[in-house]
Input
Amino acid sequence: MSNVLVNEKDIVVPGETLAEGMDNLPGEGTYRQGEKILAGRLGLAHIDGRAVKLIPLSGKYNPKRGDTIICKVTDINFSGWRVDTNSAYSAMLSMKDATSDYIQKGADLTQYYSLGEYMVASIVNVTSQKLIDVTMKGPGLHKLKGGRMLEVSPYKVPRIIGKQGSMVSMIKTATNCRIIVGQNGLVWIQGEPDKELLVVRAIKKIEEDSHLSGLTENIKKFLEAESGVKLGE
Amino acid sequence: MNEDLREHIITLLNSDKRLDGRKPLEYRKPLNIEYGFTKTADGSAKVILGETEVLVGIKMEIGEPYPDRQDEGTIIVGAELIPLSNPNFESGPPGIQAVELARVVDRGIRESSTLDFKKLCIKKGEDIWRVAIDIVTLNDAGNLFDASALGAYAALQNTVFPKFEDGKIIRKEKTTKKLPLKNVPVSVTVCKIGSKFIVDPTSEEEKVIDARLTVASIEDGTLCALQKGGEYALTEEEIAQMLEIGIEKGNELRGALKNG
Amino acid sequence: MVYKKRLDNRGFDEARKIEAKVGVIKKADGSAYFKFGNTWAYAAVYGPRNLFPRFLQDPSKGILRCNYNMMPFSSSEDRVRPGGSRRSKEISRVTAHALLPVLNLDEYPNSVVDVFIELPETEAGSRTAGINAASMALADAGLLMKDLVSSVSVGRVDDKLVVDLDYAEESYPDGPVADIPLAVMPNSGKITLLQMDGLVSKEQLKEVIKMGKKACNQIYEIQKKALKDKYPKHSAGDNNE
Output
């Protein structure tokens, strides 16, 4: 007999029993111990067919190949730029991944990216020892000028972006701000001062309420009330 | 390293705005003081200023007077910027930043004469009360100077003498006797970014400050301690303006303290 | 002499009043406080994050560092001199070892998870309060964990075994006293901290562990609730079933 002991979207803590018996499979964030499936971290229970999974609620960004992230130049050396990825690991941006220009030996690399500058980059490689390479070659990858940076939980990024980008486009429409959401939990916002603040408030609200149902409708109401902009379907 | 941030903050300040929507000379909310958060101290206060939280606790100790002040007690102020409160703080003995903070708070209290050191003398030339004021940061979201100074004064207000008998403190017994306090010194740190002044900087704003002036004053506007910081110089006119702001905002902070 | 009744009227197997809260330090990646009566521990977790100097790094997994510190005004005796003591170093070490068995740091090679435990108020049992707070803070930080860790001190006061000794009991004048802090992984029942000073028999120790586990199960329920309470708007009514 198999028995799932939690409901969909229940908050569970590490070590809590999620299911008993051998009919279910331990999914992401869980582990099997004898007949039981237990939670391997804090999260929301999610039952996906026979698999019992956990959706994380918190945690640092874990770099993954193919992610588009926002990073910051922290050092420049002979071979390129060292960038902070808002995770436990920094990444390298090599000259060949930075630009198609031919860079002369000994050239001043700050003319491309200088210390403290932010950029939207893509992760091309992560080794088992977490050495990371990023590239600037690809659509939508560029330097970020002006605006402000907001830090959010990387696990809330999918909710902030929404299905096919619906949530973030709704915020853009309501505020007329430029917004870029990095998978690593950094969000770049640029627009009118008051509108930038409204974006910050909206995103914080999404973070807080992300585990509740009816999120899109609630955020829509919030944005309409605060901005006066009527948002369509 | 933070040129973009600085530029953005200055652009906002040009239209009298800040990153978090405040006016340049506006303190964060809430501003709360919680008296007596710990029973092990002889007096304590927790200050909540926006997201910044600072704990101040006081232990009354017996000491020997200074050779040149045989009939006076004293205060000693320590500050610990603990790594629990900010990812950039490190464990270990107080660093240069903590020492500056402790000394600025010390001067604000000592020089205001709010504590009559003569009343802290137990026996001339032998025993005096030493008021050990310890500041510990709980969450550093900016402006530790003002929060710590406010907390230190509030903790003094909250302090009662422990029992003193046969040359020793009986820690288990407290008296109801309060510290003799007169003035109410408060500190306001006025910061300059570009050509603009702000008070109560957040951590982000602190990264791009050109200069700061901590203005400690008492109720009648008399200054009791100053500390200029930051890498850039200030003109006389700027200092005059910063003093005005410091004194005026000081009255506002004093409002958060309990009377008497 | 016989210890008939506890000095503060608690039952022999009863801990002091417990209070726990998660998410109390905004700057931290995870945080909590835990109180046993007047003993109060904050814990903050930062990480996994970059570890320097490089020679400290372990290329096979992340490392855990714990730092236990009493605030200067936190003792009911004299002011505690800042900067740490031999005692606080030892407690930091046993705390790390009490927590490591539940942590999975394989995913974070070369990095560090820092746990800072700070006590604003203490009256016996501070290391166990610190471990309870730290275990909640680690879960709050979203780290991969097999289980939580729950901790309590069990002791001998004269002829009786008691749970969660307080300050007065630790210095009980009329008979022998032993203090045995222990920590348990509640779901497996395994023990991750065991220390003792004082004198007890082997038989008494077995009973101590039994009492400790029982108390830890109650503490575990409080820790669990505090973690779930961080998400107050979440109501069971939203469930699909």
